[in-house]
Amino acid sequence: MGYLDLFLYLMHWPYAFEWGDSPFPKNADGTIRFDFTHYKETWKALEALVAEGLVRVLGLSNFNSQQIDEILSVASIPLGSSDHAWRDPNEPVLEEPVVLMLAGKYGRSPAQILLRWQVQRKVICIPKRILQNIKVLDFTFGSEEMKQLNALNKNWQYIVPMLTVDGKRVLGDAGHPLYPFNDSY
């Protein structure tokens, strides 16, 4: 393999699916078929790619704080700063009244409002549409607007893979021992 021209190579989940032809391999009962390689082993392999000059920077996504600490305990290089709709369609965060109100007030999309909220909370965000979303840096929410957005907390994750098994929606990956969302961040 030659150089992978990415600023950041992101380990998206702390667990993997079984290798094969399907990106989401399933068992006969509809549950996900996992690989059980520990994420610390994956991290060390990614660091080897950096050492070989094949990748520039590594990062993590969807890891809880304990898992991040475990990566940091083995990391020899610093952490860097899919178009699948994983969220439950019955949880339309982009349609929350306060988000829509602020979008109208600031002339921004609901996604830009939520991105600005994260930036203002000092949460590192990696947007997909960089040119469109750079526009979240030219305005600031007042303290009352931040309180309204913070009040949207429903104590659930927005990025949680869901599956339908036997006609019921279930957490698609919660059965893996390294699933990050059983613990709070």
From TrEMBL:
Residues 4-77 form the NADP-dependent oxidoreductase domain. Pfam families: Aldo_ket_red (PF00248). Gene3D superfamilies: NADP-dependent oxidoreductase domain. It comes from the Eukaryota. InterPro entries: AKR (IPR020471), Aldo/ket_reductase_CS (IPR018170), NAD(P)_OxRdtase_dom_sf (IPR036812), NADP_OxRdtase_dom (IPR023210). Belongs to the aldo/keto reductase family. This is Alcohol dehydrogenase [NADP(+)]. The lineage of its organism: Eukaryota, Metazoa, Chordata, Craniata, Vertebrata. The gene is AKR1A1_3.
